[in-house]
Design brief:
The complex is a heterodimer of chains A (259) and B (346).
Chain A: H1 2-29, H2 46-50, H3 55-88, H4 94-106, H5 109-124, H6 128-153, H7 157-165, H8 170-198, H9 202-206, H10 215-225, H11 230-253
Helix pairs in contact in A: 1-11, 3-6, 3-8, 3-10, 4-6, 6-8, 7-8, 8-11
Chain B: E1 6-15, E2 18-28, E3 33-37, H1 44-52, E4 59-64, E5 67-68, E6 79-82, H2 94-104, H3 109-122, H4 138-150, E7 156-160, H5 168-185, E8 188-193, H6 196-202, E9 205-210, E10 213-219, H7 220-225, H8 230-235, E11 240-248, E12 251-255, E13 265-268, E14 275-278, E15 284-300, E16 303-310, E17 313-320, E18 331-335, E19 342-344
Parallel strand pairs in B: 3-8, 3-9, 6-7, 7-8
Antiparallel strand pairs in B: 1-2, 1-4, 4-5, 9-10, 11-12, 11-14, 12-13, 14-19, 15-16, 15-18, 16-17
Helix pairs in contact in B: 2-3, 2-4, 3-4
Classes of the chains: A mainly alpha (259), B alpha+beta (346).
Chain lengths: 259, 346
């Protein structure tokens, strides 16, 4: 009996710890007052609406979206063929390549950001946007390769051979047989990459320039100057966006099978 | 240049540096059902993949229908292959699986429809055209894989252990189905298997392979009744194979196949052969010149199977159930006679 109570308590505390901050953010954003506080100072939706009026939020949201969508798509264009080659052929240095591809996950973001700043932006005169794009693509690439590799592993090689014997070229077999059977994995990789890129802070922190900031960095900057509930409201909205995407993905493709 | 339909000439196949099939010559006639039979690793699947073009030979040439196809890529050879795993396209319906190759050939759409329906009907799947492969049973997947290959009217249809994933009853059904399809379509078929009973039941001719070489080639009856070598006899169910150790005064002295025990068993008559072999059914029990102790008895319906230990090893015998029953531990007389023996070379 005590054991049952104990395990319930542990579950309750874990969930509180995980979900609690989310609720605090939602309600802090609903405040009618003008400073960030919990419990909120009266209830109103004005801060949720005010978010859309902030010019810099709009700009940085667009940049973040561009990086998340563009970077992830680029990572997939590079990652899908890489995953295919790594899973189908015995490449020389195959294991090394896998390790290098995984490096952006292992190496702390701060180091990646600093390195890109020090060796690309400063000496080579890369624009900040280009460096950000490069960084986000590299950060998402490991996820793309991993997730797509996993779904390739379940696809038998003889299926491609069957397609070839029925008249396909190797490339035709890839697009007609391999791609349709790994599209779930590709979409899963896209969503994972999108979320990773969108929520990225440490790398973007180093690679922000005048007028070029991703949304999370912009939110930090905003908070340093204006301590009002709009940041909480915006956080809540972004969290709802992520939940919505994952929910739709789970509903239509069983997202959790791939991650 | 031979006038065989499929001709493999001095074909050497290798995986990197390890040679799987050295210098193979094989002719296959048009409309024939031929079996490549042998234990795993004997090169049968490798040979089949070379015919399909999925593997480039190290040297030698492959002719199909008089044309040298050695350098023709797999997608241009017009060869069908039914994979052991069936390799159906999981994202396509049964109908689309069959239509796949026809669409690539840019066949007119009304003809595709007609041919696909015909193909599905031929294997009894017309009711299941909209199903995905995962929604079909093992036997139905097998039929679908067959229909997908047959609809292309391939010059040669290769089948890689097509019955090995089916249960015993289905296997018999598919066996006769394959024979019927072969009769109807008259397509040259090459069937790869390690199961001798399957090969015997299906094939016009059997190519028995061992270590990349052809151990023996002949009709089912030839191979079953008259294997030439110890390897062939072993594979064809001659379970009693003994070495002819010595021969004098009208007597053969048998020794164990590879044992170096000096014990001998003598039988009347003389033989030139290096080895003599008997099927279990050719050994009579209860009377005869030899004596041994029964080690095991197994009831097998029509017959009873004994393992008898004698001086040169174990002798397996199969006798009608009506005969007198011996128990484990009994000392029995048995007979190995030269007239029922099959002479073999190494």
């Amino acid at each position: 009996m005590t054991q049952l109570w104990l395990s319930r308590l542990v579950i309750f505390l874990t969930l509180t710890f995980l979900i609690g901050p989310f609720f605090i953010i939602i309600f802090a954003g609903l405040s009618a007052g003008s400073s960030l506080a919990f419990p909120p100072d009266g209830l109103s939706l004005k801060w949720y609406l005010a978010v859309f009026e902030v010019e810099s939020f709009r700009k940085s949201f667009i940049l973040s979206m561009f990086l998340a969508v563009g970077g992830t798509l680029t990572a997939l264009v590079l990652g899908v063929p890489a995953a295919y080659a790594l899973s189908r052929y015995k490449l020389p240095f195959g294991e090394t390549i896998k390790l290098i591809v995984a490096a952006p996950i292992i190496v702390p973001g701060i180091i990646v950001g600093l390195a890109l700043l020090r060796y690309l932006v400063v000496p080579l005169d890369f624009t900040v946007t280009m460096a950000l794009f490069l960084a986000h693509t590299a950060l998402v690439l490991p996820y793309a390769v991993r997730v797509v590799s996993a779904s390739l592993q379940n696809l038998r090689v003889d299926m491609e051979e069957a397609a070839v014997l029925l008249g396909c070229s190797r490339l035709g077999a890839f697009s007609r047989v391999v791609l349709p059977n790994i599209q779930g994995g590709i979409l899963a990789a896209f969503i994972l990459g999108f979320v990773t890129s969108f929520n990225q802070v440490p790398v973007s922190l180093f690679l922000s320039g005048p007028g070029v900031r991703t949304l999370p960095i912009d939110m930090i900057a905003y908070m340093e100057i204006t301590y009002d509930p709009s940041v909480a409201a915006l956080s809540a909205l972004l969290a709802f966006l992520s939940i919505g995407i994952v929910f739709v993905a789970e509903r239509f493709l069983g997202f959790s099978r791939y991650v | 240049m031979s006038d065989a339909y499929v001709s493999l000439q001095q074909l050497t196949l290798a995986y990197g540096d390890s040679i799987a099939v050295p210098d193979l010559d094989l002719d296959i006639n048009e409309g024939e059902l031929i079996t490549l039979l042998g234990p795993s690793g004997c090169g049968k699947t490798t040979t089949m993949r070379a015919i399909a073009g999925l593997m480039q030979p190290k040297s030698g040439r492959i002719f199909i229908d008089g044309v040298d196809v050695t350098r023709v890529s797999a997608n241009k050879r017009q060869i069908g292959l039914v994979f052991q795993s069936y390799a159906l396209f999981p994202h396509l319906s049964a109908y689309e699986n069959v239509a796949f190759g026809l669409r690539l050939r840019r066949v007119a759409s009304h003809q595709i429809q007609q041919q696909v329906n015909q193909g599905l009907e031929r294997v009894g799947l017309q009711q299941l055209a909209t199903r995905k492969p995962a929604e079909l049973s093992g036997g139905q997947q097998q039929r679908l894989a067959l229909a997908r290959s047959l609809v292309m009217q391939p010059k040669v249809l290769l089948l890689d252990e097509p019955l090995s994933n089916l249960d015993a009853k289905l296997r018999l059904e598919m066996r006769s189905e394959l024979q019927r399809l072969q009769r109807e379509t008259a397509i040259t078929m090459v069937f790869v298997t390690h199961d001798q009973s399957e090969a015997l039941a299906l094939a016009d001719r059997i190519v028995l392979m061992s270590d990349g070489h052809i151990a023996q080639l002949g009709t089912a009856e030839e191979l079953y009744n008259a294997p030439d070598t110890v390897f062939a006899a072993d594979f064809m169910g001659f379970e009693n194979i003994f070495k002819v150790a010595d021969e004098r005064d009208g007597l053969c002295y048998l020794a164990g196949r590879d044992s170096d025990v000096s014990a001998r068993l003598e039988i009347a008559g003389s033989s030139e052969a290096g080895y003599l072999a008997w099927r279990p059914a050719a050994v009579s029990v209860g009377q005869g010149q030899h004596r041994g102790e029964v080690r095991s008895v197994a009831f097998a319906g029509e017959t009873r199977e004994y393992v008898i230990e004698c001086t040169i090893g174990f002798v397996k015998a199969q006798v009608p159930v009506g005969n007198r029953v011996h128990a484990v531990g009994d000392v029995v007389d048995f007979e190995l006679s030269l007239s029922t023996a099959r002479p073999l070379r190494d």
